[in-house]
Amino acid sequence: MKDTKTKALVIEDDEAWSRRVCDTLSALGCTTDATASGRDALARILQNTYDLAVVDMELADGSGSEIVHEAKANALPTQIVVLTGTLCGPNAALLGLYSGADDSLEKSLGWPEIRARLEARVRRIRSNGAPARLVWGGFTLDPEFLDLYERVDGKDVLRDDLSLAELRIMHCLMRAGGESVSSDFLARKALRYSSLPENYRKCVGQRIYDLRRKLGMTEKDKGIVNERGEGYALV
Questions:
Q1: Hey, is 203 helix, strand or coil?
Q2: What domains are there in the chain, each with its CATH number?
Q3: Nearest CA among 103, 134, 109, 96 for reference residue 121
Q4: pLDDT tens string for the chain (235 positions)?
Q5: How far, CA to CA in Å, does 152 sit from each of 75, 132, 139, 149, 164?
C-alpha cells in the first residue's frame, strides 16, 4: 500500500531523468507527480503540500532556483533536492545549496549515488528530519555524527579506532547499498580532495586496505570489495 503521507513532485524536462527519479520515489512508496515546466511547478508547489520536490536547475522555461526561492519565501515545509548538470558550471552543487535547497546533486555523480541520496532523503522525511541509521552486516552507522557501531555479543560497540576519513568511506559505501562507488567519488567525498592528485587511486586503495584490516575483513570476496574498473562496494 502506498504511503500517501509522503508526496513528491519531480520537476525535470529530461524525460529519461524524470522517469528514473519518479520510478525510484514510487518504489519507495511515495505518491509522485511530475512536470517538465517550471511555471507549472511553481503553481503546483504553492497549491499543494509536497513533502519533497526534486528540481532540475536547467529547465527550458526557467531556472530551478526560482522554484527553490519561491518555496522558501513562502515558508513551505517541502524539502527540496536540486539536480544540476554541466550547463550550471563547475560550482553547480554549491549554487544549488546557496539557493536554499536542502540537498544538491550533480548528475555526473552517477545514478547509484543519486538514488541512494534520494532514498536517504525520503527516510529522513519519514523520521521527522532525523537521518536514518545505515545498517550493513554487523555494523550500524549514525550518519549525523559518523559513529560506527559493531554488533559484538549482542551489544553495539562503538568503533572509535577509525579515522574520520575511514568513517566517511564507510558512510559512502553503506549509503550506496551494495552499489559500486568510484575511487574518484571516494577521493572527493571521503578524503576531501578538492582537486585529484595523480596518485589518488593509490591513496583511496591504502585507506580501504587499512579499513578492511581494522574491521577484520580477511576474505577478498567479502566485505569491501574492489570491483575492477568500477570502484568499491560492500558485498
A1: helix
A2: 7-126 (3.40.50.2300), 134-234 (1.10.10.10)
A3: 103
A4: 344 468 999 999 999 999 999 999 999 889 999 999 999 998 898 887 899 999 998 888 877 888 888 888 887 888 899 998 755 444 555 666 777 888 888 888 888 888 888 988 888 888 776 666 889 989 999 887 788 999 999 888 999 999 999 999 999 999 888 888 999 999 988 998 888 899 999 999 999 999 999 999 988 778 999 987 778 999 9
A5: 45, 21, 10, 9, 22
